[in-house]
Structures are given as structure tokens and as C-alpha cells.
């Protein structure tokens, strides 16, 4: 099966000292071949987090605990780099994010105080591709 990066797609990606994090692709590729993606991370007791989009656990097979979308670390990633990571076994494709949770992530992007304006602009320019 050939993997094709697209919006709503999710992947496990090596990230930080905790190992793999779930990343959600928010856009299809722009005209230059880039996607916008964000990671989801576990809410830690007594640590602040971005409450723009949170999950209780169970919304995706990889989300088992209360978690939030880490908008501050939103990234543009070239489509062929994602594909290369998958082909090398570094990134592990998972099932697509259900539409209602994907919509919540996109709404949170528009409301987060922690995301860079560049990411909001990129999302707005490419969300309908």
C-alpha cells in the first residue's frame, strides 16, 4: 500500500524524550508541496497547557489519556519528506482523525493564543485544497 499524506491523516512521529507523538496533518499540500501539521501531547498534572483543543482520551486509537493539541510547535512539512519518513519506517501512519475531532483541532488552531500567525495564515490559505 502506498501512503499519501493528506489532511486528517495521522502519523506517529519520533518527538521529544517521550518517544512517539501523534501528529495530525491539517492541510493537503500547498502549491509548494508543504502540509501543516500539529502534534497531540498528554496533559501533565500541574503543568500549563494550551486549552484551545483538548481530548479526554479515546478520540483516536493513540489518544488514551487527557491530551491537548500542541499548537505552539505547529510545523510545515514537505509532502515528500513525510512520505520518505514513512518509507524508512520512521513515521508510522495511523487511521485518519475522525471529522468531528479534526474540525475541533482546526477550530482550536483559529483560537489558540500559542500558535504563530504564520501557521494560521498558512492554514487559512490551504485548508480547502
In short:
By secondary structure, the protein is α+β, with helices and mostly antiparallel strands.
Describe the 3D structure:
With 129 residues, the chain is of the alpha+beta class.
Please give a handful of descriptors for the protein shown.
single chain, 129 residues, alpha+beta
Structural class: alpha+beta
Counted beta strands: 6
Assembly form of the protein: single chain
Mean pLDDT: 95
End-to-end gap: 24 Å
Query: What is the percent of helical residues?
Result: 10-25%
Question: Rg, please?
Answer: 14 Å
- How many individual helices? 3
Unreliable stretches (pLDDT < 50, length at least 5) are none
Overall body shape? globular
> Could you give the order of the helices and strands?
EEEEEHEHH
What is the strand content?
25-35%
- State the major sheet: 6 strands, antiparallel
- The largest beta-sheet arranges its strands as 4-5-3-2-1-6
Strand-helix topology:
Layout: E1 10-14, E2 20-25, E3 34-42, E4 54-55, E5 67-78, H1 79-87, E6 92-94, H2 99-111, H3 117-126
Antiparallel strand pairs: 1-2, 1-6, 2-3, 3-5, 4-5
Amino acid at each position: 500500500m502506498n501512503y499519501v499524506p493528506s489532511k486528517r491523516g495521522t502519523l506517529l512521529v519520533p518527538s521529544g524524550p517521550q518517544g512517539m507523538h501523534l501528529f495530525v496533518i491539517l492541510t493537503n499540500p500547498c502549491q509548494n508541496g508543504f502540509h501543516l501539521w500539529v502534534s497531540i501531547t498528554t496533559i501533565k498534572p500541574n503543568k500549563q497547557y494550551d486549552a484551545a483543543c483538548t481530548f479526554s482520551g479515546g478520540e483516536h486509537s493513540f489518544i488514551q489519556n487527557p491530551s491537548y493539541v500542541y499548537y505552539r510547535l505547529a510545523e510545515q512539512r514537505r509532502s515528500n519528506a513525510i512520505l520518505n519518513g514513512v518509507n524508512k519506517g520512521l513515521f508510522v501512519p495511523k487511521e485518519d482523525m475522525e471529522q468531528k475531532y479534526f474540525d475541533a483541532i482546526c477550530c482550536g488552531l483559529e483560537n489558540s493564543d500559542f500558535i504563530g500567525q504564520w501557521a494560521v495564515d498558512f492554514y487559512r490559505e490551504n485548508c480547502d485544497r
